[in-house]
Amino acid sequence: MKEKIIAKATDMFLKLGFKSVTMDDIAGEMCISKKTIYKYFCNKELLIAEGTSIVHEQIHLGINAIIEKNYNAIEENFEIRKMFREMFKSTDTSPIYQLKKHYPDIYATVISREIDECISVFKQNTIKGISQGLYRKETHIDSFVKFYYTLIFSINETTKLEAEVFKLEMQALEYHTRALATNKGIVELEKQLKNNII
User: What does the pLDDT look like over 89-141, one tens digit per residue?
Assistant: First the structure.
């Protein structure tokens, strides 16, 4: 039952907003008593924390599955963007924006976890791109990784609507890739942009 509550609550939080969904709403949607929810979660914040932890795991399982498909580095980044769009397509308001505004402690936990994961993924991608001749050899990897995750997190933290987040992230991905790319990389980037018209 605990897993079902987390799954339903997380789905509702992402679709309707962390702040607006109440324990009564979740109980009503599941046709259970609020008391049943409180048996597993003493408050809504604990339920949100568990839910965001599950979403974090799903995201990184998805990213790892994409990496295992062995796309070239630029295509890999576009596939990851597509995965995010698919995961959050029914979400109106950016989850990160909501957490920062309404649940800063949970937000701080999520961000500290995400930054470490993102640094690792971005760094692996940059190294891969250099080895494939898509990114410039003289790239200062740590600096470029820091620039990119700072840009991506800034977009998520300050942009309310998820559709706008996705659009800005795609523009940031193009901006980031152009800064890294060799001539061969630019050709691949243009191909990906053509295939990923929003």
Answer: 777 888 888 888 899 999 888 888 888 888 999 999 999 999 999 999 999 99
Give residue 136's Cα distance to chain centre. 26
Q: Residue 191: what residue type?
A: K
Helix axes of 2-16 and 23-30: crossing angle, nearest 10 degrees: 120
pTM: 0.85
Give the C-alpha separation, 166 to 187, whole Å: 23
What fold is seen in the domain 49-195?
Tetracycline Repressor; domain 2 (1.10.357)
Long-range contacts for 68-71 (Cβ within 8 Å, ≥24 apart)? none
Token pair listed for 174: 């193009």
Domain ranges of the chain: 49-195
